[in-house]
Amino acid sequence: MLKNKTIAFLGAGNMAEAMISGTVQSGKIPKDQIIVSNRSNKEKLQEINEKYGVRTLLKDELPFNEIDILILAMKPKDIDKALDSINHLVKSNTVIMSVLAGITTSHMEEQLPGGQSVIRVMPNTSSMLKESATAISAGRFTSEEDMMNAKELLSSIGEVYVIDESKMDIFTGIAGSGPAYFYYLMEHIEKTGAEAGLDPQMARKIGAQTIFGAAKMMLEREESPTQLRENVTSPNGTTAAGLDALAQFGGGKAISEAVKGAEKRSKEISSELQSRQLVTN
Ligand SMILES: NC(=O)C1=CN([C@@H]2O[C@H](COP(=O)(O)OP(=O)(O)OC[C@H]3O[C@@H](n4cnc5c(N)ncnc54)[C@H](OP(=O)(O)O)[C@@H]3O)[C@@H](O)[C@H]2O)C=CC1
Ligand SMILES: O=C(O)[C@@H]1CCC=N1
Predict the structure, then answer these.
(1) Which residues form the Pyrroline-5-carboxylate reductase dimerisation domain (predicted)?
(2) To test the ligand 1 pocket, which listed residue (14, 132, 157) has its Cβ within 8 A of the most ligand atoms?
């Protein structure tokens, strides 16, 4: 159903690039049907054009008449200016997808011509390798066909989950921000391995393979995480000692608080934007 559709990105930063990389690798959308734009950074556009072979333009040069799906990928603080600059140009049947944390479909719908289909999307940077966990939520004017097209497009960068928009903040805390928690874990694993004499590159590979193996077990086996953890843990063995230290230093609580902190920030972004107080991000 995406055949002959033109997809444009408004914003060409880290998240847009990760999505472009995965989409191009998947081969589902021909490169000449992907347009990438930003506000002013021409060097970045040239880099994206050379790396991925997609069309690149400044935002003011976008051919709005050609665009079937417009993906908003600027920072949340820039959303209102971005909507203001497109709301007279966008076709009524262009589907707007936003990857912005904390920005609700209703906020966007209010600033677009009546009846515009808006889909809220939360991908993560593993889109780069087609391994994103991506959530999508329909706006008020989104048809089933729009959602089917969104699923088809986003399945080219990983797994897609359709969720109610009220769950978008917690999804963001788990999956949108989630890669950073695992990188943080890896920073510590690599450092600790290197301090004990392992070559840092070797420590990095060992840590990454261990996380990858555990993730694969979680995806492919039926046991619960608790059962899988118990299978590793011998009485009075090394794992029990490691887990005791994790509990003693608040490991479990720290993980829950990280997810809740990101969820809370996602909610705050929505309310700060409503009261025009969003200055960071
Ligand atoms: N990074 C991540 O892991 C994830 C990010 N997100 C969301 O993705 C969004 C982008 O994040 P990220 O890629 O990290 O940000 P970056 O700062 O890397 O990129 C922002 C981009 O937006 C462009 N931009 C700003 N204003 C406009 C405008 N009015 N019109 C067109 N382009 C504009 C900038 O262009 P220029 O450089 O020319 O100013 C730049 O290309 C955020 O809203 C974030 O919440 C969602 C999931 C994960
Ligand atoms: O940090 C952020 O706000 C964005 C949204 C999810 C991941 N990065």
Answers:
(1) 165-268
(2) 14
